[in-house]
């Protein structure tokens, strides 16, 4: 019996029009373009305005994906959304995206793994395809980080932006698609990167709002060191166990959090800068959306048979790496 392999067969993304530049940010908080570029590598980030939410970005990405791939809404079996900035505690953002994108006869759910969420969701979708229970699955990575960013905190507010990306996952030829993944979590890291209030352990109150505890809290140095070591370790491991040399690897697609992290991971993998997808400078850290946003921008350069490694690290701690062989020529 022929083995079923899951692969990405289409991709689309959506970003808000509004650009928050470093120059404008420096009028809001004590920072400069030079400081941000030297330490992070971000020039601007997109911010969602007009009373919209994460599901609106996700729905736009999905509608664009359906049109681009000539996929009818009733052909989609499942939608999985990776996000930590859900519109509401419930229902899930995946449910709202499905409704807004006109996907009426499917089931959907969210995965919350912070910046690693897209990889976790993509691997989950792959399992349904390989099992043979589903034919077409949409995976969305979407986050409206501006909703949980404290624009009085100079250490975190330059980091984040808003965006959504969506991919279509289907069965592909056996020599293509998702080949391997390493996905890990460590809850002991939660204290270093989290949101202090708003959950069941510390429900919202006047006190939590006054204390500004509904924003991203991050211990930068600890997170930086963990991100470099964890992303690099799993990426090197997945190269070794799949016998992938750095010469034959077409692209590294890293989570876009910090240019120094990306550079350090690439060095550990012996990958040259020309093989690393980077759009951090234009969009900032869009959490679960960073990897699909890169794939969307580089799609015209991707060729059928290209070997890619996707890598991410996020709050939780969560991290992982995925090896896939690209399933179509992106310039067609």
Can you put this structure into words, describing what you see?
This protein has 332 residues and is of the alpha/beta class. The chain has ten helices and 13 strands. The protein has helices at residues 22-25, 33-39, 54-68, 93-100, 117-131, 206-210, 220-241, 259-268, 280-283, 290-298, and strands at 5-14, 19-21, 44-46, 78-82, 107-111, 137-144, 162-172, 177-185, 193-195, 216-218, 251-254, 307-314, 318-325. Helix 7 runs parallel beside helix 8 (259-268). The protein is globular, with a radius of gyration of 19 Å. The protein starts with a strand and ends in a 7-residue tail after the last strand. The model has no long low-confidence stretch (mean pLDDT 97).
Feature tags:
332 residues; Peroxisomal Thiolase, Chain A, domain 1; 4-stranded mixed sheet; 10 helices
List the helices and strands and how they pair.
Blueprint (H helix, E strand, L loop, with lengths): L4 E10 L4 E3 H4 L7 H7 L4 E3 L7 H15 L9 E5 L10 H8 L6 E5 L5 H15 L5 E8 L17 E11 L4 E9 L7 E3 L10 H5 L5 E3 L1 H22 L9 E4 L4 H10 L11 H4 L6 H9 L8 E8 L3 E8 L7
Parallel strand pairs: 4-5, 4-6, 11-12
Antiparallel strand pairs: 1-7, 2-3, 6-7, 8-13, 9-10, 12-13
Helix pairs in contact: 3-4, 7-8
């Amino acid at each position: 019996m022929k083995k079923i392999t899951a692969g990405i067969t289409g991709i689309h993304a959506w970003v808000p029009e509004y650009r928050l530049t470093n120059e404008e940010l420096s009028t809001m908080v004590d920072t400069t373009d030079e400081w941000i570029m030297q330490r992070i590598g971000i020039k601007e980030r997109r911010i969602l305005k007009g009373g919209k939410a994460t599901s609106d970005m996700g729905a736009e990405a999905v509608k664009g994906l359906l049109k681009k791939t000539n996929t009818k809404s009733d052909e989609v079996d499942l939608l999985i959304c990776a996000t930590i900035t859900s519109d509401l505690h419930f229902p899930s953002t995946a449910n709202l995206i499905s409704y807004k994108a006109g996907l009426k006869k499917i089931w959907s759910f969210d995965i919350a793994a912070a910046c690693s969420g897209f990889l976790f969701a993509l691997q989950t979708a792959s399992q349904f395809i390989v099992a043979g229970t589903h034919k077409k699955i949409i995976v969305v990575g979407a986050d409206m980080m501006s909703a949980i960013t404290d624009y009085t905190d100079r250490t975190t507010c330059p980091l984040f932006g808003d965006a959504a990306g969506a991919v279509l996952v289907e069965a592909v030829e056996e020599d293509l698609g998702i080949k391997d993944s390493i996905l890990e979590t460590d809850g002991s890291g939660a204290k270093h990167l989290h949101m202090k209030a708003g959950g069941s352990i510390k429900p919202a109150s006047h006190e939590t709002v006054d204390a500004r505890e509904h924003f991203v809290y991050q211990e930068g140095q600890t997170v930086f060191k963990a991100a470099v070591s964890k992303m690099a370790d799993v990426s090197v491991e997945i190269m070794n166990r799949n016998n992938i040399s750095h010469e034959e690897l077409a692209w590294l697609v890293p989570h876009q959090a910090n240019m120094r992290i990306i550079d350090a991971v690439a060095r550990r993998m012996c990958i040259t800068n020309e093989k690393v997808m980077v759009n951090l400078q234009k969009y900032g850290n869009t959490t679960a959306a960073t990897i699909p946003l890169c794939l969307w921008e580089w799609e015209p350069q991707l060729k059928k048979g290209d070997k890619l490694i996707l890598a991410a690290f996020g709050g939780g701690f969560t991290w992982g790496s995925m090896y896939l062989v690209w399933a179509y020529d992106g310039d067609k």
